[in-house]
């Protein structure tokens, strides 16, 4: 093997790897130095032919300024486990595996529908951002410790029997039905629901858009947020309030009160929605008293 005159440049890297030749001349023609470099290169090639962006590379090309060039090897796309994420790892776009599938199932169960393919693609990234936005987390589209804590908390939210109405729930449902029947309009859902709830509980809902009701209801002790699958929205107990997040197609979101028979009331009565213009970004609050 022919070695060029840059042998001297390799010596610091060799020494950092435990291959020391301090007592020998560093002249390029020194046979012992040449032998060390040649042996190292041969062994290193045979043991760890590295992949750089999909191509085999000469290991010595990794040495630059006596340091191995970092970030040159293609990122491992195997997704970290949830336990690893809780300890500081991050799952992101491009990752694959069972942990990704688990994330996708969790998002879907919380109303952020995405197919459980096991591949973290653009749709998963988008749905994760929607979840982060709804729960007040930085919208990175990546699953880190903060986001996984929010996912855990959302899934641990106590689930109230979908078919068991409460006294307060029945009052809200009856009020919502009367208000929607009287109005029978389209485009004033928040006004209809806010009026119906105010007639029962007093005024506490405010804001111009329906999606703004979610944090208000979340902070009201008379309501408990529950996790509901999209297809189970039709089974909600009377008086449960469904708040849909805003999207490009629905910039104000949507809000309605479940009537308990597969119907919902807002500013009119219709079948209970299970998606809003293709999106399943919603939160459900059920009366507890």
In one word, what is the shape? elongated
| Cα end-to-end separation | 84 Å
Q: What's the number of structural domains?
A: 3
Proper CATH architecture of the largest domain: Alpha-Beta Complex
Q: What is the N-to-C succession of helices and strands? A: HHEEEEHHHHHHHEEEEEE
**Proportion in helices:** 25-40%
Number of helices: 9
CATH topology name of the largest domain, in short, is endopeptidase fold (from Nostoc punctiforme)
Unreliably modeled segments:
1-7, 21-29, 43-75
Structural class: alpha+beta
* Rg (C-alpha, Å): 30 Å
Report on this model:
The chain has 289 residues and is α+β, with helices and mostly antiparallel strands. The chain folds into three domains: 7-68, no CATH class; 82-156, Muramoyl-pentapeptide Carboxypeptidase, domain 1, CATH 1.10.101; 167-287, Alpha-Beta Complex (endopeptidase fold (from Nostoc punctiforme)). The protein is built from nine helices and ten strands. The radius of gyration is 30 Å and the shape is elongated.
Offer a concise description of the structure.
With 289 residues, this protein is α+β, with helices and mostly antiparallel strands. 36% of the residues lie in helices and 11% in strands.
List keywords for this structure.
two-stranded antiparallel ribbon; alpha+beta; 11% strand; six-stranded antiparallel β-sheet; 289 residues; single chain; Muramoyl-pentapeptide Carboxypeptidase, domain 1; disordered N terminus
Task: Produce the secondary structure layout.
Blueprint: H1 7-16, H2 31-47, E1 51-52, E2 55-56, E3 63-64, E4 67-68, H3 82-86, H4 98-109, H5 122-134, H6 145-156, H7 167-183, H8 189-201, H9 213-218, E5 223-226, E6 241-244, E7 254-258, E8 263-265, E9 269-271, E10 282-287
Antiparallel strand pairs: 1-2, 3-4, 5-10, 6-7, 6-10, 7-8, 8-9
């Amino acid at each position: 093997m022919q070695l060029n005159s840059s042998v001297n440049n390799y010596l610091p890297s060799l020494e950092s790897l435990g291959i020391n030749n301090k007592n020998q001349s560093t002249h390029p023609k020194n046979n012992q130095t040449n032998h060390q470099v040649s042996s190292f290169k041969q062994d290193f090639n045979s043991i760890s032919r590295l992949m750089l962006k999909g191509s085999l590379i000469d290991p010595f090309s990794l040495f630059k300024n006596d340091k191995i060039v970092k970030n040159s090897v293609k990122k491992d796309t195997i997704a970290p486990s949830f336990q690893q994420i809780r300890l500081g790892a991050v799952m992101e776009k491009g990752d694959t595996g069972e942990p990704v599938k688990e994330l996708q199932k969790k998002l879907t169960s919380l109303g952020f529908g995405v197919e459980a393919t096991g591949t973290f693609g653009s749709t998963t990234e988008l749905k994760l951002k929607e979840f982060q936005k709804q729960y007040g987390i930085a919208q990175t589209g990546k699953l880190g410790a903060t986001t996984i804590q929010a996912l855990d908390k959302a899934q641990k939210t106590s689930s109230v029997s979908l078919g068991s109405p409460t006294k307060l729930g029945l009052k809200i449902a009856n009020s919502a039905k009367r208000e929607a029947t009287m109005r029978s309009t389209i485009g004033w859902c928040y006004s209809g629901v806010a009026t119906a709830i105010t007639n029962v509980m007093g005024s506490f809902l405010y804001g111009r858009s329906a999606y703004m009701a979610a944090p208000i209801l979340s902070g009201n002790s008379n309501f408990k947020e529950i996790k509901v699958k999209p297809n189970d929205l039709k089974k909600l107990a009377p008086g449960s309030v469904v708040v849909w997040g805003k999207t490009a197609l629905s910039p104000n979101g949507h809000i309605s009160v479940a009537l308990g028979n597969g119907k919902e009331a807002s500013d009119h009565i219709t079948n209970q929605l299970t998606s809003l213009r293709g999106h399943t970004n919603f939160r459900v609050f059920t009366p507890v008293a």
